[in-house]
């Protein structure tokens, strides 16, 4: 079985036809999915979805691209969701210097609020990091907490540094792309015990479906590529990464 550790069934693109995407996922052995929030609305929807389907779990947060107006009031609303047993992580949160419509100082302030909340409630963080590896690393090292680097796209050496401070590495469809030398190196270098798999759907559709809308069922193509690189059976990549995800998110 497979655990898709990062889906956006709460997104506009997938929500409407969610029953179809969920049916496809279950049919392909994708038995559990973490629905991840990125703003107030999507976090609320993630919690609702997790309470509507037993195999769905939720993460709540305001991501770095949506945090321009974020206040402490918003954080208090998010914090209330953590009482819900289906809410198993805080994410996605982090730093994104690829887009520049939110100042780095504001991103860091809101990221730190999420880190503090994760520590207070002893919950894992699901980290979004783009073109901001050193700053993300130093804030997480300082925090001395745990979680997962979602859709990891940095170097193998940097990935190891995150593992060394308590973070799992989650690989997405990018690892399947023909020219994806660096993600394939990460898959080869990081021990399977420290890997999770995800689709980040509706984005990052894996080969051979690039260009189409992504959905949770496609996480098997991520597992297939990792199996090829590590010379393992795809079922073993599925069950080990499922075990890793359940352990990280505290799911029995
Ligand atoms: Zn995401």
Please provide a written account of the structure.
- The protein is an alpha/beta fold and 252 residues long.
- The protein has one domain (2-249): Metal-dependent hydrolases (TIM Barrel, Alpha-Beta Barrel).
- It contains ten helices and eight strands.
- It has helices spanning 12-15, 18-27, 40-52, 72-81, 104-121, 133-143, 156-164, 181-189, 219-230, 234-249; strands spanning 2-7, 30-36, 56-60, 87-96, 125-130, 147-149, 167-171, 195-197.
- An eight-stranded parallel β-sheet has the order 1-2-3-4-5-6-7-8.
- Strand 7 (167-171), helix 8 (181-189) and strand 8 (195-197) form a beta-alpha-beta unit.
- Helix 7 (156-164) packs parallel to helix 8 and helix 9 packs across helix 10.
- Bound molecules: zinc ion.
- Zinc ion (ZN) binds at residues 6, 8, 36, 92, 200.
